[in-house]
Amino acid sequence: MTARPRTSLRAQLARPRPAPASATVESRANKLVSMPANKSVVTAASEMNDPLTDSASAPAIDPAGNPVAGAQAGPEANPPINPAAETDVSSSAKVPAGSVANASVKSSARSATNLSAQVPARRGANPVAKSTGPSSTQAKAWFAARGWKVFPFQRDVWQAAMAGQSGLLHASTGAGKTYAVWFAALQRAALHKRPRVGLKVLWLTPMRALAADTLRALQESATDLLPAWQIEARTGDTGSAQRARQNKRLPDTLVTTPESLTLMLSKADAVAQFAQLDMVIIDEWHELMGNKRGVQTQLALARLRHWNPGLVVWGLSATLGNLVQAREALMPDGVAVEGHVAKDIVVDTLIPDHPSRFPWGGHLGLQMLPRVVEEIERHATTLVFTNTRSQAELWYQNMLDARPDWAGLIALHHGSLDKQVRDWVELGLKNGQLKAVICTSSLDLGVDFLPVQRVLQIGSAKGIARLLQRAGRSGHAPGRVSRLTLVPTQSMELLEAAGARQAVAARDIEARPVPYKPLDVLVQHMVTIALGGGFRSAELLAEVRTAWSYRDLTEEEWQWALDFIARGGQTLAVYPEYRRVLPDDEGVYRVPDAAIGRRHRMGIGTIVSDSSLQVKYVSGGRLGSVEESFISRLKQGDHFLFAGRILEFVRLHEMTAYVRRATGTRGAVPRWQGGRMPMSSELAHAALEQLRLATIDGAESLGPEMQAIAPLLATQQKWSALPTPDTTVIETMHSREGRHLFMFPFAGRSVHVGLASLIAWRVARVTPVTFSIAVNDYGFELLAAQELDWTALLDVGHGAKAGLFGTDNLLEDVLASLNATELSQRRFREIARIAGLIFQGFPGQPKSARQLQASSALFFSVFRQHDAGNLLLTQAQREVLEQELELTRLRATLEELQARHISFHQTKRATPFGFALMVERFREKLSTEKLSDRVARMVRELEKAAGP
DNA sequence: GACCTGCTGCGGGTTG
C-alpha cells in the first residue's frame, strides 16, 4: 500500500479494520483480472455475504470483503449496504477507474448502519432525491421468489462493479448476464449520497426491440427493489412528449442505442445531462464490436469517460474468439468474467433419407421439406432459420403447399417485411401461438422467445458463432438445453455439418476483428462533438486516442480530418455546406450554422442501407420493402412472391411499388442484394479435418453425416482425391464448355474469389487467356476456352509453387486482377454517407438510389482527380481489401497452399466436389486483354497509400 | 443426374 486512497476523515473513522481489508480486495481483484473464471475467485467470493450469495450462514462481510463491525449472524441483521451511511463519494470522480482500495473504504463505511431503519423513510421521501440501492436480502429474495439460483459469476460481477471496476462478462445466451450487471447497477445506486437528479445508469443495446424488452425486464425488478428508480428507453421511436421530457432531464436509468446516445452527445447541454452518470452497460457487445457501430460506441464512451474518469463500464457478450480484444475495445483496464452456467448445446443433423440421391450442388434444399415438416409437426414451436430472404419466402410458400392446414399457424419473418407484420409474428412466438416461423438472421437476437422448442438451420450456418447464437434461441434460460438441427441442402453441407458439430464441441469460435481507424466515423464524431458543446483540437485528439480503434491515430490524420470538416478539404472548400465547423476566438470548434447542425443530426449513425421501395397494396396496407433494382426489372402485370403472397405488380409511384393479390402462377422471387457470408476459417478447418479422418479410417467410422456421404466421398476418392489439411486437390477436365480447372483450398468464398482472380491474372500474364470464374466456400473453378498446361504452370511435383501461389507483390496483383476501382467506388458510397458528404434527404422524402449513387460517384471521381491524398479514398481501398477480399486470410491461404502437397488429377467428368462448383451460377468474366492503365494507376495509388 | 443464394442493425422531423 504505497499510495493511500483519498478518503474523508469520517469514512476512515467509520472503517472497522482499514488497511488489511482493502489490501485483500485489491489482490482479489487482481486475480479477477489475470484469471477470469478462476476457481479461486469463485471460492473467495462464496465466502462472502454479498447480496447474491445464497448461503445464509456466511459471515457478515460487506460487498468489498471487509468484515462488518458488530456483525451478527445472518444477512437480515447485517445488510452490507446502507444507503444513508455517511460516505465520501465526492472523491470517487477524481480516482481512476479500478481503484479498488478507495471503493472498499467507502463501502465499509456504509455497512456501519442498519438498513431496516431506513426503509420507511425511503418510501415516503421524494423519490428522486433518495436514490438508494436494494439490500442483499431483497436482491436474494427477489431471485428466490422466481426459483432462480444465484451463480458465482453473478457475484463476481457484482463485487468487481461495487469496487468500481469495469469489465466484460461473457457467457452463452440465456445464462443470466442481464441480472448480474443490473443488480450491480442498482447496488451502486447506494453510493450516491447526495440527492441527485439525472442519469446514473446507461444501458446500450444494438436493437430497438431489445431496448423495449430490456426496459420491461429492468423495470420489473426495479419496481420491487428500488421503487423510486426511474427507468426509461430512448430510441428512434420514442414519442415526442417523452423525448421532450428527456431533453430536459434524463431518468435514473436510460436504455438506448449507440445512435441515440451519439445524438444526445450532439446536444449543447450534454455535459450536464451526463454529469451524474455512474455506470454504462453495453449489451450484446459482440454484435457491435466488429463494425462501425462499435467504433461509434467506443468514441461515445471516450467522451463519457472524459467527463467522468471513474465511470464503471460493463460489456455483455457472447463467447467469441478474441475476448481480450473485445474487452480492450471497451475499456482501458477491467476484468474479464466468464459466465459459469454449464450450458448444454446439442447440435445434430437431419440426414437425408436417401443420401446417395442427394444433390451434389444447389442451396435451396426443398428435398428436405417433408423431413422438416415432420420435425415441426412433432414439436410445439420451431424456428426455421434460412440464409436468405428469398429462401425464406420459398420455404414458407412450399410449406404451406405441403400443409395447407397450417395457414395461420406458421409465419414468415425477415428484414424486408413491414414492421407491423414482424411485430405480429414476434408476439405470436412469445405467446406460443405459432407452430413455426421461417426466418433469416432477423431473429438471431433480441426478444427471448421462451416457448421455442426447436431450432432448425437450413443450409450452411457459415460459422460456429452464428450456430451457437441460433442454438441459443431454444432453451433460453439458465440450465436448459439448447438444441439446433442442421438441415443440409446438398451433399457438401453434410461434410460441413460434421465439421460444425466437432467445432461446436470444441467451442472453436470465430474472432470478430475490431475496425481500425475508420476516418469516416471519426469525422462524423468530430462534428457531433462540435455540436455538443464544441472542442479544442488537442483535447479532443487526446480523448479520441483513448478509443481503442484510434489508439494509433497520427497527428497528420487528425489534422486532415479537422481540415476536412473545417474547410471541406482540398476540393470542397468553395462549398459553404462542407465548412461544417469553425474555431472561435478561443480555439473552440463549433458548428456555426443551425441548418448544418440539423442536417448532421439527421445523418448520425453508421448503418448505410441500400435504398429500397415500399411495397403497398393498391387498396392500402404496407407489406414491406424490396430493392429498386428488382422492381425495375418487372413489367406491369408481372407476378412475384413476397411476404408469403403472390403479388401482381401494378405501378411504381414516388418510391412505392403498388401491387395487388394475384392467384395461380408462381412469380419471380425478389433477390435482395445483400452481403456474402463466407464460411469461416474455423468451420472450414473443421470440415477439412473431417476429410483427413475419412482418409485414414474411412468415412464409415465417423459420425452420421460422414457415413451418409461415404459413397460420395468414395467416388471423389476414386476419380480424384480428398482434400485434407495437408493436401490440396486440383482437377482438370474437358467439357463442351471448355477446359476446367478445379481447386479446393477450403478457405471460404471471398478468399476463393481473390485466389481465383489472382491465379487467372498471373497465368494470363504469361499466356493471353480469358477465364470464367466460379467459386463456392470449398473451392473455385477456372474455365478457359483453350488448353493450358497446368502441370507446368503449377510446377507440380517440384515443390516450387511460389510462382502462382507466391505472396510477393500480392497487393498489387490482387488489385490488378480484380476491378478494384469499381469495388472501392461501391465502398466509398458508404464512407461518404457516414462522413456526412451525402445528405439522404428528409425523412419521408428519401432520395432515390440513383440520386445517391450519382452524388457519391461524383465525389469519388472528383477526389480521385483532384485530391488523390484524400484519406477517405484510402479507407475505401483498405476496406475492400480487408473486408471484401479478406487479404489477410488470402495471404495465409497462399502460404498454406505453398506448404501443402498437391494432388493433381485429370478427370473424365466432374467429380462430386467439382460438380458443386459447376452449378454455381456466379460467372465472372475476366478479360485480361483489356486490363489497362487504369489498373496500373490504382496500383500506384495504393502503393503510395500503403506506404513503405 | 444432379442448379431458383446472398443477412442484420438505427436515425432525423425541414424546406422548396
Structure notes:
The chain is of the alpha/beta class. It contains 38 helices and 27 strands. The chain has a seven-stranded parallel sheet with strand order 3-4-2-5-6-1-7. Helix 11 (258-265) packs across helix 14, helix 20 (491-505) crosses helix 26 (681-697) and helix 32 packs antiparallel against helix 38 (933-946). It is globular. 49% of the residues are buried. Mean pLDDT is 79; it is low at 1-131 and 921-943.
Structural class: alpha/beta
- The pLDDT mean sits at 79
Helical residue percent band = 40-55%
State the end-to-end CA separation: 48 Å
Biggest β-sheet description: 7 strands, parallel
Number of helices: 38
Low-pLDDT segments, ≥5 res: 1-131, 921-943
Number of strands: 27
Rg, Å, rounded: 30 Å
Task: Provide tags for this entry.
948 residues; alpha/beta; 7-stranded parallel sheet; 6-stranded parallel sheet; disordered N terminus; DNA-binding
Question: Helices, strands, pairings?
Answer:
Blueprint (H helix, E strand, L loop, with lengths): L8 H6 L3 H17 L4 H8 L53 H11 L8 H6 L11 H10 L6 H11 L4 E4 L6 H12 L12 E4 L3 H18 L5 E4 L5 H9 L4 E4 L1 H8 L4 H4 L5 E4 L2 H4 L3 H16 L4 E6 L5 H6 L6 E4 L6 E5 L19 H10 L3 E4 L3 H14 L7 E4 L5 H12 L5 E4 L14 E5 L5 H8 L10 E6 L3 H15 L13 H13 L3 E2 H9 L9 H13 L14 E2 L4 E3 L3 H9 L9 E6 L4 E6 H5 L6 E4 L2 E9 L2 E6 L19 H17 L6 H5 L1 H10 L7 E9 L2 E6 L5 H18 L4 E5 L4 E5 L5 H5 L7 H4 L4 H8 L2 H15 L14 H18 L4 H14 L2 H13 L1 E6 L5 H7 L5 E3 L6 H14 L2
Parallel strand pairs: 1-6, 1-7, 2-4, 2-5, 3-4, 5-6, 8-13, 9-11, 9-12, 10-11, 12-13, 17-21, 22-26
Antiparallel strand pairs: 14-16, 15-16, 17-18, 19-20, 20-21, 22-23, 23-25, 24-25, 24-27
Helix pairs in contact: 2-4, 3-7, 7-8, 11-14, 20-26, 21-23, 21-33, 29-32, 29-36, 32-38, 33-34, 33-35
The protein binds one DNA strand of 16 nucleotides through α11, α17, α24 and α37.
